[in-house]
Write a structure and sequence with these properties.
Layout (H helix, E strand, L loop, with lengths): L1 H12 L2 H29 L8 H26 L4 H25 L4 H24 L9 H29 L5 H8 L2 H15 L17 H18 L4 H30 L5 H33 L1 H20 L4 H29 L2 H27 L9 H29 L15
Helix pairs in contact: 2-3, 2-4, 2-5, 2-6, 2-7, 2-8, 3-5, 3-9, 3-14, 4-5, 4-7, 4-8, 6-11, 9-14, 10-13, 10-14, 10-15, 11-12, 11-13, 12-13, 12-15
């Protein structure tokens, strides 16, 4: 198995066009990390500002909502526009738009210029990543797509984290804390985006990345956008006959609401309770990011084997139940080392649940509906997170110390574990099938 994986990696990296496309992607995501660190720092950890919990929650929501709003409709544009042009123009536009955002940071203005510019830059980033994904089959053979997608996704996450880390180091060692320092970091982004635009233009010919010849008699953009909305409605309706996937989606949405609430409390704790200056806070946040990354990696290693053995619904139930215990035990002391451990466990649970949800959708949903169900899932994933942050922001103290929130989150995880365990277990026993069962045992009547 290890030999086959190594051969697959060598085969993928042996394609020059894939290496070039990956390089453009990694450069863009590294720059995203730098830019978004400047954004988050200017709002969350800026000594020149006294941001309220609600302000922080709304700013964080602005960082994730474009992924929900743009994602489902990206395919409409990517099937019409040259993917090379998407790579070039999204990077050029982002390079230009960062300039007024940096000016707004210097002025301490979080008004419409800052908000609309941020939404546009991050939304364009989502369009770019979708374009790279759509272009990948044009540079990699079909039997290598799974490996190519895994390499791109993992390497992209690493590049984004590296950008965040570099920005934190610059803020600690080079630039001063405050509006001027965060604006200076943001102004590094246009150079990165500009380089990626040039590389995209030089590396690829216009038709090389697709799309292939446009299908004739296509409706206009408005008609296609309407078709996307109707497709998402069809995806929701299809889940009536794929209830194992539906229950898993609902459990994940509930988890994301609670995760958003806990994330805001954690940010407030590190901003207002755990550090006297930016350097100290940056060092402690570095441990938090490392714990989160380790949790994702551990979940990726453990979840496939465990869920195949005991069933996906049991694994999700166990993860939610474990959080019901871990949140109050590790959270209530409000001690930074214990919270780092809690972050590790929460990220193991979150990524483990996501793996099971994706597998459930692939396993239960008919092929003709999978794309639409995944579009619904992507939208719920981010909207639930933003809802949790904004919903709890009015009730949190400025320092994030809230025993009531931790108790409520523990009860929420317990309720999710109980409700999901009962409903998903009943469905699995009814149809005699779960992702732990061999594919041949899937009932033909479902």
């Amino acid at each position: 198995m290890a030999t086959r994986r190594l051969h697959g990696l060598r085969a993928v990296f042996g394609v020059p066009a894939f290496r070039r496309l990956l390089g453009v992607r990694l450069g863009g995501q590294f720059t995203d990390g730098i830019f978004q660190a400047a954004l988050a720092g200017s709002v969350l950890f800026n000594p020149d500002r006294h941001t309220t919990p609600t302000g922080i929650a709304l700013a964080a929501a602005a960082l994730v909502l474009p992924y929900s709003l743009v994602g489902p409709f990206a395919g409409v544009l990517l099937d019409r526009w040259s993917r090379r042009s998407v790579i070039v123009w999204t990077n050029l536009l982002r390079a230009v738009l960062v300039l007024p955002i940096a000016a707004a940071i210097i002025a301490g203005d979080e008004g419409m210029v800052f908000l609309s510019g941020t939404l546009t830059v991050i939304g364009l980033g989502r369009l770019l990543l979708s374009g790279v994904s759509a272009a990948t089959p044009h540079v990699v053979a079909d039997d290598r797509l799974v490996t190519a997608n895994a390499v791109g996704g993992t390497a992209g996450s690493v590049a984004y984290s590296a950008g965040l880390g570099c920005a934190l180091l610059l803020l600690r060692a080079v630039f001063p804390a405050g509006n001027a320092g965060y604006a200076a970091v943001a102004l590094l982004a246009p150079a990165g985006y500009g380089v990626c635009a040039v590389l995209g233009r030089v590396f690829f010919s216009r038709p090389q990345l697709g799309p292939d010849e446009v299908v004739p008699h296509r409706p206009g953009l408005t008609g296609e956008a309407g078709a996307v909305l109707r497709g998402m409605v069809d995806g929701v309706r299809h889940l009536r006959s794929a209830r194992g996937a539906a229950y898993a989606l609902a459990a994940q949405a509930g988890f994301r609401v609670l995760f958003g609430a806990l994330s805001l409390a954690l940010l407030l704790l590190y901003r207002n309770a755990f550090g006297a200056d930016v350097a100290e806070v940056s060092a402690k946040l570095g441990l938090v990011f490392a714990a989160g990354a380790a949790g994702v990696l551990l979940a990726a290693v453990v979840t496939p084997a465990v869920s195949r053995r005991i069933g996906g619904w049991r694994w999700v139930t166990g993860l939610l139940g474990a959080l019901a215990v871990a949140v109050p035990v590790l959270g209530l002391p409000f001690a930074s080392p214990l919270l780092v451990i809690l972050v590790l466990l929460v990220n193991i649970a979150g990524h483990g649940i996501k793996i099971v949800v994706d597998t459930m959708v692939q396993h239960e949903c008919a092929d003709a509906f999978r794309g639409r169900v995944f579009a619904v899932n992507d939208t719920l994933f981010n909207l639930a997170y933003a809802t949790g942050m904004v919903g709890v922001s009015r009730f949190l103290p400025n320092d994030g110390r809230s025993a009531g929130l931790l108790a409520g989150a523990a009860l929420g995880f317990a309720a999710l574990a109980t409700g999901y365990g009962i409903t998903a277990g009943r469905w699995a026993r009814r149809v005699g099938d779960d992702i732990a069962a061999p594919a041949g045992l899937v009932p033909s009547g479902r």
